Amino acid sequence: MESDPPFQEKYKSLFGSVMEQMTTTEKSARERLLGLPAKLGLFQVVNHGISGEILARMKCEQQKLFWQPFQKKVKEKFLDTSTDYYHWGNPNATSLMQFSWSEAFHIPLNHVQMWKEYNSTLSTTVAEFAEMVSELAQKIAEILAENFLGYKSNYFARNCQPSSCYLRMSRYPPCPISSDSICGLVPHTDSDFLTILYQDQVGGLQMLKDGKWVGIKPNPQALIINVGDLFQAWSNGAYKSIEHRVVTNHEVERFSVGYFLCPSSDTFIQCCGEPALYRKFSFREYRQQVQEDVKSTGNKVGLPRFLM
């Protein structure tokens, strides 16, 4: 299909060893990963107030966007020449364990209006969805905070404005390579406070629970809520940022759209509780550290960098 990214051509040095066994180092890393304990920080919500009609429109608009020719997706700047909205694969991957067989459009919410001239139907649908899911994210964050603190807090309303949040529309093309070592999205934790995810009915999302990968069965009436790194640090470990991944599918494509509740770059994250597990840090510092680790090692280190 002309719309698919040239994964095999671009990353042929990685795929050359697909038919071989994983190296001892990779096996050891995978065994350590699967042996880590995990506490639940991912759940589904129903009666969330976002209609099936808007979710169906979001998927329809996603399909039209992703089904454009690959070269058009790469070259199109959506009227903002300084921003690259489209991403695919992993430029810094040095092994198959670091490679994701997927493509995505990252959309800062304060950029949605720019898309009107490009595609008014798409921008209108995205804007409507973003407004509704933003309200839902704030409500869920408030409930979790009150449950933890014992009183209502306006922390998230003050620090997580729409201008600092974003959407990510993802597509996972069929993967023709039969290998358990290739993921649609590599194992990771999210670097925000909360992620709200709508996935289609194909399936493939898994979370690490009690050292095992557990599939998240699609529910057309539910949205998935995922606790991020910042919430884990802010709650002093009371809420856990869960490692998750997406597995590949050999026959069908998968679509999802995620909303990421993020603070402004200058917002400081400080543990609510004693003794504090993590030192105080800004969101800017956290993102920079994650980017540096991924660039230098191919992997995200995350919160362990900020332990007291």
UniProtKB/TrEMBL annotation:
<dbReference type="GO" id="GO:0016705">
    <property type="term" value="F:oxidoreductase activity, acting on paired donors, with incorporation or reduction of molecular oxygen"/>
</dbReference>
<dbReference type="InterPro" id="IPR026992">
    <property type="entry name" value="DIOX_N"/>
</dbReference>
<dbReference type="InterPro" id="IPR050231">
    <property type="entry name" value="Iron_ascorbate_oxido_reductase"/>
</dbReference>
<dbReference type="InterPro" id="IPR044861">
    <property type="entry name" value="IPNS-like_FE2OG_OXY"/>
</dbReference>
<dbReference type="Pfam" id="PF14226">
    <property type="entry name" value="DIOX_N"/>
</dbReference>
<protein>
    <submittedName>
        <fullName>Gibberellin 2-oxidase 8</fullName>
    </submittedName>
</protein>
<comment type="similarity">
    <text>Belongs to the iron/ascorbate-dependent oxidoreductase family.</text>
</comment>
<dbReference type="Pfam" id="PF03171">
    <property type="entry name" value="2OG-FeII_Oxy"/>
</dbReference>
<dbReference type="InterPro" id="IPR027443">
    <property type="entry name" value="IPNS-like_sf"/>
</dbReference>
<keyword id="KW-0479">Metal-binding</keyword>
<dbReference type="GO" id="GO:0046872">
    <property type="term" value="F:metal ion binding"/>
</dbReference>
<keyword id="KW-0408">Iron</keyword>
<feature type="domain" description="Fe2OG dioxygenase">
    <location>
        <begin position="161"/>
        <end position="263"/>
    </location>
</feature>
<keyword id="KW-0560">Oxidoreductase</keyword>
<dbReference type="InterPro" id="IPR005123">
    <property type="entry name" value="Oxoglu/Fe-dep_dioxygenase_dom"/>
</dbReference>
